[in-house]
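Please review the protein record below. Tell me whether the encoded fold seems credible here:
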Amino acid sequence: MTAPALVLILAAAPKPAPDPSPLFGFTPEGSTRERAVEALFLSMPLPARCREHHRELTKTPHTAGTDGARRVAEYVAGRFREYGLETEVAAYDVLLSSPTVVDIQLVAPAPALLANREEPVLEDPDSGQAALSPPWHAYTMSGDVTADVVYVNHGRAEDYDALAKMGIDVRGKIALARHFKGYRASTTSSSPETPSRRAGPRCPARRASLKASRGSSRR
């Protein structure tokens, strides 16, 4: 009874569905081959393996020019070689900027040492790593500045215009800006020195001291 049943099952098997309309730019035969190749490539990535790679690449800080960056480069090169690719890691010198001292203090109305690193996130253990560098703007000059503080929202041109309309002058002040809504470099390049952004002498009551020292090195 087994053999006849098998014959009936095979005979009743449906025919493969016809290939859908050809892909744009392909003949019907070419479309079939292209879809087969795409299906093969889509079947190759494994989510678990992708997570492993991502974890390995991001588990420690890897700022350019540091040992962490070398570790990441060697890991990627090692995987490429495993996959049969001819791989070479090139070394070259570039001028990089890294902070040595970043100190922010509120000197009035009450002295206070301000934190310059975000608090670790409980759900992200990596956010508490001691090797994380403090925030800084690369290639900025070292300096020690004490001045009144003006909150400038996102530090965009329209934010300085809004302050000028309120009679708040930001010249000679420390501009306190928050990130997002634009590239971070634009926060420092939106100069308030244009005539439309000059305003009266009204100032805030907060005063702060900002000290930054940068170390340059060739990596």
Observations:
- The CA atoms of residues 180 and 193 lie 23 Å apart.
- The helical segments are 2-12, 28-43, 47-58, 67-82, 157-165, 184-189.
- Confidence is low (pLDDT under 50) at residues 1-16, 194-205.
